[in-house]
Amino acid sequence: MIVPMKHISLFALKADERRLMKALQNNGVVQIERTEQEGPASALEAAGLFRSGCEGELAEKNNTVQRIKAALSRLAPYLPKAGLLEAPPESSEEELIGAVPGALKIAEELEGLQKELNQIKNDKEKASAQLKALRPFGGVSIPLDEIRPTKTTGFVLGLIKPEKLSALDEAGVVYEAYPARGQKTPILAAIPNASREETLACLHSAGFAEASLAEYSGLAEDNIAMLESGTASLELKNDELSKAIAALGESAEELKKGLDGALIEQKRAEARCELFATRETFLLNGWVRSDEAEKLETIVNENAGVHYLEIRDPYDDEQPPTYCKNSKFFAPFEFITNMYSPPDPRGYDPTVVMTPFYLLFFGLMMGDTGYGLVMSIGAALFLKLKKPKKGTEQVAKILFWGGLSTMVFGLLAGTCFGMNWYDLFGESFPFPLIDPMKDQMTAIIAYCALGFGQIIVGMIVSIVLHLKKGDWQTALFDIGSWLIIFAGAGLAFLLKGSLRYIAFGMIVLGVAMLIGFGGRAKKGVGRVIGGFGKLYDITGFLSDVLSYSRVFALGLATGAMGSAFNLVAGIAKDMLKGIPVVGGVVSFIVAAVLLVILHVFCVAINALGAFIHCARLQFIEYYNRFYTPGGKLFSPLGIDTKYNNVK
Amino acid sequence: MKKIKKFAAVVIIALLALTVCGAVFAEEGVPTIGAAEAPKGPAGYVWAAIAVCVAMILPGIGSALGVGMAGRAAAGVSAEDPDKGGSCLVFELLPATQGLYGFVIAMFILVFSGILNGTVMQLSTELGRSFFYASLPIGVVGLVSAYFQSRVCCAGIGIVAKQGNGGMGITFAIMVELYAILALIISILMVVRVPVNA
Questions:
Q1: What is the ipTM of this complex?
Q2: Topology classification of domain A141-218
């Protein structure tokens, strides 16, 4: 059922703003709408009106959230792993917000450590590059800073392949060679200013590579030793810092709490940015559920001093958000409808008329009692232990009920863990009533008939909705005439003798209504053509009904896949039995493990298929008949946390 | 375009291979319908074996291609935002079903033709060939529909990246699957009605 919305406008003093927003957020009753400026900005400013100056605060809150998030993702490898079925801890809103400064401090500490770590990484890289350049010169026996040009001669230090030294000798280059620390020999070559070019050319043609070691003083060997010890101490410090960061992983709880607190504050700041303000007052526009309007009034009265609160019905040109309220059983199935589109706020919530069909076809598509049992138990455990919220909770509940339905329909038209009921309990066992394996056509026709039933229900709902709106013509001529035709066709099959003429009469009446009034929007020839055009809708009915044959295919596929997996496990067992001594045990264990893995996979993939195909049947074949989509979900300012459930 | 051409090439090669197989075995001679004793023996077995291959290989290729493509798109989106991994996974798994339908038909053929319980040598050439024809709907339609469904799924993953949940994208993708399901139904009906024991 769709709960009507009320529009609210609230003027209050800025002094009360924070307290009021906090109370609104904690109660989650108002969806705040951005208050749009009317008139040019300059005129508003002249009148002392401006957007509530909160952009700075919002930027700060965003920054906080980002920093804590970054800290958490940096610490991710060190965080204790949460159990798969462990419910999130519960905290109060105050506790979470109180944890923000602490979390920020940890984030800051982490940022500092990370910065140091990066510095060390840079230093290490620099040192290793220096070492790489210096190492070949370890044998050079003169201090590097003493290599200086004289008046007539310059000197270069560099590396050359030892076999090329003779070439230098032949060319008459003067040089001193030092012991090699690698494949090349370090040499110090003298370059007379007089024959500078020739000497250099000679050196280069011999493959001489000049080294630039001017930045170093003292012996190369001493420099190498110094850099090596420096690198070792950097390593030590690196380890220390890494350990310190890992130790911060223990404060994960605080960070998570802080993040949730920061998220709450961020949301509140975002909401404050939607307000409009003067120097002393602010204006809040938004939507509230009509059944919570009184609650809102109480909250405002308690938290705001002087104020003016206007609650009114939406105008015709306004598009309020949609909120559906259903009983505990039906509420999770709103998820299915919302997957398509939330209902129009002035339309009709189809959840209640959809759920029975959804469960019916879901059960038939899965069609395996064992799998239904597994799904229900799994979903129930997940709900009990993990305590999920929102969409996840709804899906788990749908799977729970879907599992129960699967158990029932698995008995009627299916299998149990891929095994036929006959195989389990003998031929005299009355189930399944329809065996899709043995009697395919009966099964297809039965499922299509069920689908046809759903379409008829959709048409009846449509008639009721049109009548409520006062549109009796559409109800009678466009939809009612089809019902008369279908009823006539059905009676023609059932009745015998002259009574059959009544049935034929109904068909003729229905067709006549369609041709006569189907095109009533147009005039003259167009009207008749329009009427005949309506007759063409019969193809739509046919394809919609045939679409339900997928129930047969998916139901059979589940059972067949299950039995194929049983077969595979059986073959594996037979093959392993041959192993001497341990064969019995090993084959049993392997078969058991295989069965569990394969059947879990089978449940998962078929549940996904059934979930989606079943939803599709509702969307296309059913909602098509009566549903008005296009709403936007009511999303009140509330508390939306990531790691903690709020008490 | 390049991808489509490549894909078309795969399909054509697969179909050519099938035709060649058919032609080779057609040379054994088609017994007249209604003959008192249809020839039995290895030819029937071979046809049934080809049928199993067609039912398993073609949709398997389609699903592997499809899941692969959708998987790459999904990995990209969840690298940006790991929270969207769940929604992406649904899209990735949708083209996986064709391969499973093919598997179901392959198992049906294994059981009904008697390959599994060893009575396949009783199978006449004609009936063996019936299994081959029965495997074609799911084989070819499974291959093609898995590929094109995957393209819709990739677009759907784009919706997830932009809006946080798949919404109607799942319904769009499911539309393609209808044809694989219809082919599955036809293949099932054909396989289970082959009059092996007649």
A1: 0.73
A2: Alpha-Beta Plaits (3.30.70)
Q: What are the b/e assignments for B126-145, b being 16+ CB within 10 Å?
A: bbbbbbbbbbbbbbbbbbbb
Cα-only R_g, chain A: 40
Pick the CATH number of B2-192 from 1.25.40.10, 1.20.1250.20, 2.60.40.1930, 1.20.120.610: 1.20.120.610
With vertex at residue A79, the alpha carbon angle to CA A76 and CA A81, rounded to the nearest 5 degrees, is 110
Tens-digit pLDDT profile for residues A567-595: 889 888 888 888 887 878 888 899 999 99
| Residue in B94, B101, B171 nearest the CB of A557 | B101
Which residues of A fall within a CB distance of 8 Å from B100?
557, 561, 605
CA distance A218 to B168: 74
B178, B136 in Cβ contact below 8 A? Answer: no
Q: Do A341 and B103 touch (CB under 8 A)?
A: no
Q: Which among A437, A550, A615 has CB closest to B181?
A: A550
Contact B107 A567 (CB under 8 A): yes
β-pairing, A209-210 vs A30-33, is unpaired
User: Hey, is A185 helix, strand or coil?
Assistant: strand
CB contact, 8 Å: B96 with chain A?
A: yes
Q: In this complex, which of A339, A553, A616 lies closest to B185 when CB atoms are compared?
A: A553
**Chain B residues within 8 A of A561 when measuring between CB atoms:** 100, 103-104
Of A144, A126, A128, A152, the closest CA to residue A212 belongs to A144
**What phi and psi values does residue B196 have, to the nearest 5 degrees?**
-65, -40
Q: Are B146 and B95 in contact (CB under 8 A)?
A: yes
> pLDDT (tens digit, 9 = 90+) per residue, A103-156?
888 888 889 988 999 999 999 999 999 888 888 888 888 888 888 888 888 888
